């Protein structure tokens, strides 16, 4: 089975779903290695051209991540990434919901249609990943 890093680095721009899944898996590997106070406020956005692009949820965390950037580069290199720099972007949206918070409503009323959900399940199945909520033993 391919590792998340292998999938990310071997993917093509024509396969955005696989790339997004790879970035998410890599994010889950990187964040636990960050300082405990910083990790909940940081999310990996992209890896491209020797640069880690990170999102933070406020200017305070932007400054703290900037100070931790050399350590983050070392951590990324220890995972096999060839990175030289960290680019940090600040967003106004929270990066993670607090535990127990309800999920935000979809922008369209009613959420995704049944056809959309089925298409996403089919795309995940084509990638060889189980659909969310599906029993992996099936």
Structure report:
By secondary structure, the chain is α+β, with helices and mostly antiparallel strands. The chain has a domain at 4-95: GMP Synthetase, Chain A, domain 3. Helices cover 41% and strands 14% of the residues. It contains 4 helices and 3 strands. The chain has a 3-stranded mixed β-sheet with strand order 1-2-3. The longest helix is centred in the middle third of the chain and has 20 residues, at 59-78. The two termini are 18 Å apart. The mean pLDDT is 78.
Largest sheet, strands/sense/barrel: 3 strands, mixed
- The CATH homologous superfamily name of the domain at 4-95 equals DnaA, N-terminal domain
The CATH class of the domain at 4-95: Alpha Beta
**What is the strand content?**
5-15%
CATH-assigned fold name of the domain at 4-95? GMP Synthetase, Chain A, domain 3
What share of residues is helical?
40-55%
Low-confidence regions: none
Shape: globular
User: Strand-and-helix sequence, N→C?
Assistant: HHEEHEH
Radius of gyration from CA coordinates:
17 Å
Count of discrete alpha- or pi-helical segments spanning 4 or more residues: 4
Oligomeric state: single chain
Count of β-strands: 3
Strand order of the largest sheet: 1-2-3
State the distance separating the first and last CA atoms: 18 Å
Write the layout of secondary structure elements.
Elements: H1 4-10, H2 16-30, E1 42-48, E2 51-56, H3 59-78, E3 85-90, H4 114-127
Parallel strand pairs: 2-3
Antiparallel strand pairs: 1-2
Helix pairs in contact: 1-2
């Amino acid at each position: 089975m391919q590792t998340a890093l292998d999938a990310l680095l071997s993917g093509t721009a024509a396969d955005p779903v696989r790339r997004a899944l790879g970035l998410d898996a890599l994010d889950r590997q990187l964040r636990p290695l960050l300082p405990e106070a910083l990790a909940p406020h940081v999310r990996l956005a992209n890896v491209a051209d020797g640069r880690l692009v990170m999102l933070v949820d406020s200017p305070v965390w932007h400054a703290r991540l900037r100070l931790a950037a050399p350590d983050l580069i070392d951590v990324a290199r220890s995972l096999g990434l060839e990175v030289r720099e960290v680019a940090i972007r600040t967003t106004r949206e929270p990066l993670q919901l607090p535990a127990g918070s309800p999920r935000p409503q979809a922008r369209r009323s009613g959420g995704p249609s049944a056809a959309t959900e089925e298409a996403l399940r089919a795309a995940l199945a084509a990638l060889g990943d189980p659909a969310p909520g599906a029993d992996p033993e099936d």
